[in-house]
Amino acid sequence: MGxxxxxxxxxxxxxxxxxxxxxxxxxxxxxxxxxxxxRTLAGPPVEGxxxxxxxxxxxxxxxxxxxxxxxxxxxxSLFHSSLLRLQVEELLKEVRIPEKKKERIDTFLREVNQRxxxxxxxxxxxxxxxxxxxxGVRVPVHQVPYTVKGCFRFLPPAQVTVVGSYLxxxxxxxxxxVDMAVTMPREILQDKDGLNQRYFRKRALYxxxxxxxxxxxxxxxxxxxxxxxxxxxxxxxxxxxPGKDERLVTVRxxxxxxxDFFRPCRLLPSKNNVRSAWYRGQSPPGDGSPEPPTxxxxxxxxxxxTLESHMQLxxxxxxxxxxxxxxxxxxxxxxxxxxLDKGLGGFSGFLVSMLVAFLVSTRKIHTTMSGYQxxxxxxxxxxxxxxxxxxxxLCLSSDPSLPALADxxxxxxxxxxxxxxxxxLCADVTxxxxxxxxxxxxxxxxxLDSRADDGFHLLLMTPKPMIRAFDHVLHIHPLSRLQAxxxxxxxxxxxxxxxxxxxxxxxxxxxxxxxQGLGSRLHLLAHSRPPVSEWDLSxxxxxxxxxxxxxxxxxxxxxxxxxxxxxxxxxxxxxxxDFRQFWGSRSELRxxxxxxxxxxxxxxxxxxxxxxxxxxxVVTHLLALHANIPDTCVHYVGGLLDxxxxxxxxxxxxxxxxxxxxGGELVMVPNVEAILExxxxxxxxxxxxxxxxxxRWTV
Length: 699
Known about the structure:
alpha+beta, Beta Polymerase, domain 2, Poly(a)-polymerase, middle domain, Alpha-Beta Plaits, 4-stranded antiparallel sheet, globular, NOL6/Upt22, chromosome, nucleus, Nrap_D3
């Protein structure tokens, strides 16, 4: 690029096509061939084929525009290479929803809106009188205990509003889900419906009546129930078009109360809204002891109240900022490849969107940033910020009546408050999940900073399930054993708060138990719960044990991994009793060379391979001792390389060396090709063994 060369004005004026100088005449066969080619090129253009663009000399050598210069500078400073930028742009094209498909989805949404508003009303009955429900529809929640006060009648919704990522323009393919908030009228709700699951029972009955009438409409090819983010107290109704359009979109209906119906001060994390006398069937204690708080129960009510306000906030922040929307889409792909957004307690795309809004409010992200810049900024924030210690808040109010961050830290492991100051957006996120997100963010930032050629594929294109991300993996099955674990660990307040979900109630205690037992051997412990599948209108909702297996991943430290000794305190110290209680029968008094008498645990391990499997002994012993989970219910996957490495090692002794002549003497040297061949066989065997051991426990 640059100014045209001298003499360019004689060849053609600006705006005119450049004329080619006639070539010298050729003689013989070559001249005939060239003349025939010229005649072919000079002929009329063939219809349907692209023709070369004729540029003038001025257009060919014109200076780059400001937009082109800015794009070149941005590519050089932000994307490390033009290839990375092209890869990101192509990925965004693939995950965005095409305009033609949006038009078809919008048409379907308008029809859904009209159908929902035309559902007829029902007479008023008691909550426990559900005889008015048709025989082919079951209530999509577990009503335990069944007896509850209150009345119910169905009235058409006050309004139906599209909320979520589709309206914001951050919804990504291949699974297109559109969330619709169905606002229940005030007339069917009562002031004390926040107590003892009354609101959730009414919400489920409202959804069941909607499902019965919409299931008879030919507009829908599929009408099914599902849990909202894995929460068994909050089902949603899934609507899909009929025929070949069934995979076009899934509309999820979420019944919700009017935004200001429940008072937020009654839903603080320190308040109780599930009475022990009702839930446990016992009379209240006469000693005046306070009721245990129900922070998760209160949060689930607040989530339904704030659907529209969160939508308005995100719409204001994202608005027309295409870079922010692209950044959210890239982050969703990043989470999906690592399976961090699955089920109850996952780090969802909604949390990522709210995190973008928070960083915009703190001016760490600007609305003019590109999608790649937003991706880097969020990953950097996650890698360097521990929300389990120092929570963050979108609330800008200085009202002293609002709860403090410390109040939320006492009730939840991860704290991120919304703009109201009452709702913790990360209430369902466990500390283990957040630490896993932090770990993956650090790895991703190191990958981006390394400028590796395959960085894009490793970051956004390569799936990274738990079996690939952790050294050892264990599966707990059947999940019904966790109910006994809750009884052993005396988790009655947690069960009362979570509505009887014994898997979620036991999860925090189990991860804390294993982290304490593994100690310095452990770098990271994470868990994974498969999402609960959908179910038909005529079926009962899935039970907690129906969600398959609970999977725990262990990322181990090389330092101290092979130590066979757990050294405890001296026998005369007060901590010795706690050590004995924690380790049970494995703890014993031992005298050491320095003369000290200490509590200690010694693990049986003869070879180095057995020492690398000491975490297996630790896990099974602690689960059986403290949680009443026998080793027959724990399937441990680890140390598979140790069994496979023996045969290649023996083979290398035979064919891994070769005889050669050096200075007239025969010497034995390694045969590199044979050794590499052995390791290739080893790698194939390892992959097959992992897949075989994993498939055996697929549920």
